[in-house]
Specification:
By secondary structure, the protein is an alpha+beta fold. It has 13 helices and 18 strands. The protein folds into four domains: about 160 residues, Beta-Lactamase (2-Layer Sandwich), CATH 3.30.450; about 100 residues, PAS domain (Beta-Lactamase, 2-Layer Sandwich), CATH 3.30.450.20; about 80 residues, Helix Hairpins (Orthogonal Bundle); about 160 residues, 2-Layer Sandwich (Heat Shock Protein 90). The strands form four sheets. The protein has a six-stranded antiparallel sheet, with helices on both faces. The chain has a five-stranded antiparallel sheet with strand order 8-7-11-10-9, with helices on both faces. It binds adenosine-5'-triphosphate and magnesium ion. The site of magnesium ion has 5 residues, from helix 11.
Length: about 550
């Protein structure tokens, strides 16, 4: 009896110890699961991809819930798509797999908004759409939990096992808690991804604009700029003023339409010529308002229109020249014959007149003036393109040599130094040598005239091959630079006008450059000019190769 009581007491004690151990084990398991959920929540951040998220949870989960297939799928435009899965290499039910809504277990979990357990899939009386595929990857039991955010399902979390009855009803709570936590993380990552994508799209659009596009605040600080690499934005904001960094107005803010737009609150557009570089900018300023309808910033769009304006003025110039040329050509033809008679007859009489004769000087004057008039007419005819010139291969170095040979005496007698820098590798161009010489002679004579009264006058003439920034193709050029008086913008804008001259009547006809421009254009080229009052000028003849 004593023995029995002792035995009974021992069994009771054993039982109690077994229960306690079980309870402790269960509690430890629950604790581990809670710890894992917390750890997962901490380690997932919004910048992670779906693949990185599943990698982060896959390993710690194995210690608390066994699985052979782990995946999550998300609702996207009415479709349920598997976004990440373990094992990764598995194609069936892997990343990108679409689970159609009719008769699918994850869909059921989503619809019911609760975990769904399948203990023996292969022998389940109800067949689901994915069962065949589960069998192919040897999954016999599964647990599906909806991913809920604010009680709205965004997808499902799925565990699969190669054993039947691998999951118990007790695993429900853990899987649902895990799914709730993951749902928040995945949703945040998804939203962050969407925001980043649209931000990136906007930035790319912003950067794709070839012109300058920037955002300034009311104090003219640049907040954003589409070509950041060109700008060093100073974070303390002091050096970020647009008129220092971008300086389309050359520092003169009164030229900027943004000033006007800040005052009036409506957009403003203005064409501004940079005071020193002479680059012409079309500047548009568009006011930006904050949510309280207060003007807080300005979007400024700057477009370099120098080439466009130059082409427009050259077109205008050509049209004008064509009209004047036509008229002049008619007059020139009419004058040619009487002038030939005047020069010829004056020459005849001169030959018969003694140079001591009192009329000799007058006759000489008649002949000289006649010849000068004939030269003008010749120029007019060239200008009107009445003269036909044949084209052939021409070396620009030869053009330079001949031009210098013809007029170097006139230049050197004025004590002007000539510096010649010809490129040996310059290719020949198709053109008319005489006409090209005419351009260079005119450049040189103009340079000589600009050096009148300048001590240490110097003319540099050079040839070379360039990458023409206007056509973005190779071109050849002859450049004549002088350190003469230069031109102010008022004169510079008129030099190609026929008959425009600043020289005395006897010295200049004002046709030199307009004729030169006409010749350059018939050769498919152009003339570029850079000049600074008091410092000198550079005339470049640029011809396509
Ligand atoms: N290198 C230069 N430096 C300064 N001014 C120049 C230079 N080249 C041209 N110019 C200005 O351009 C004007 C027009 O030049 P253009 O060659 O067309 O006529 P011109 O030299 O006056 O007369 P011509 O018909 O005899 O050439 C000149 O009168 C002068 O004011
Ligand atoms: Mg001239």
């Amino acid at each position: 009896m004593v023995l029995y009581r002792e035995a009974a007491a021992k069994t009771q004690k054993d039982l109690a110890e077994g229960d306690v151990r079980k309870i402790i084990e269960e509690l430890t398991r629950q604790n581990n699961r809670m710890a894992i959920i917390q750890q997962i929540a901490k380690s997932i951040n919004v910048e992670m991809t779906y693949e990185e998220i599943i990698d982060e949870v896959a390993t710690p989960l194995r210690s608390v819930l066994s699985y052979d297939l782990l995946s999550f799928c998300l609702l996207e435009k009415g479709q349920l798509i598997i976004k990440a899965s373990i094992p990764k290499e598995q194609e069936i039910l892997g990343e990108g797999w679409v689970l159609h809504s009719n008769n699918s277990a994850p869909w059921k979990a989503i619809h019911d908004k609760r975990c769904f357990l399948r203990q023996d899939i292969w022998h389940d009386s109800h067949k689901y759409q994915e069962d065949e595929h589960l069998r192919m990857v040897n999954i016999k039991s599964a647990i599906m939990a909806p991913l809920l955010v604010n009680n709205e399902a965004i997808g499902a979390l799925n565990f699969g096992s190669s054993k039947t009855y691998a999951y118990s009803e007790n695993d429900f709570i853990f899987v649902q808690q895990l799914a709730d936590q993951l749902a928040v993380c995945i949703n945040n990552a998804r939203l962050f991804g969407e925001v980043s994508r649209s931000k990136r799209e906007w930035e790319e659009t912003f950067k794709a604009v070839p012109d300058k596009l920037f955002l300034i605040d009311c104090s003219f600080n640049v907040l954003r700029y589409n070509k950041q690499e060109n700008l060093l934005l100073d974070n303390d904001g002091r050096e970020n003023k647009c008129y220092h960094l971008i300086a389309c107005c050359g520092g003169d803010r009164q030229l900027c339409p943004a000033v006007e737009a800040f005052k009036t609150g409506v957009s403003a557009v203005r064409e501004v010529t940079h005071p020193s570089t002479r680059v012409i900018f079309n500047i548009s300023a568009y006011p930006a308002y904050n949510e309280n309808s207060e003007l807080c910033a300005m979007v400024v769009y700057v477009n370099d229109v120098t080439t466009k304006r130059r082409m427009e003025s050259q077109l205008f110039q050509s049209a004008k020249l064509a009209a004047i040329g036509e008229m002049a050509a008619g007059v020139a033809h009419e004058l040619n014959s009487p002038l030939t008679a005047i020069i010829g007859n004056a020459g005849l009489i001169l030959r018969k007149t003694d140079c001591k004769d009192k009329h000799y000087r007058l006759l000489e004057d008649i002949k000289n003036c006649g010849q000068r008039s004939k030269r003008i007419i010749q120029n007019l005819l060239t200008f009107a393109r009445q003269d036909s010139y044949s084209f052939g291969p021409v070396s620009l170095n030869d053009v330079v040599e001949t031009s210098l040979y013809l007029i170097s005496y006139q230049i050197e007698k004025n004590k002007i130094a000539i510096v010649k820098k010809t490129s040996s590798s310059i290719p020949v161009v198709m053109g008319n040598k005489l006409q090209l010489e005419q351009i260079i002679i005119n450049f040189l004579l103009n340079a000589r005239d600009a050096l009148e009264g300048v001590s240490e006058g110097r003319i540099e003439i050079c040839t070379g091959v360039i990458e023409d920034p206007e056509t973005e193709s190779p071109a050849v050029m002859i450049r004549v630079t002088d350190n003469g008086r230069g031109m102010d913008p008022g004169i510079l804008s008129q030099i190609f006008n026929p008959f425009f001259t600043t020289k005395e009547k006897t010295k200049g006809t004002g046709l030199g450059l307009s004729v030169s421009l006409g010749i350059a254009q018939t050769h498919g080229g152009r003339i570029d000019v850079a000049s600074e009052p008091g410092a000198g000028s550079t005339f470049s003849l640029i011809l396509p190769v």
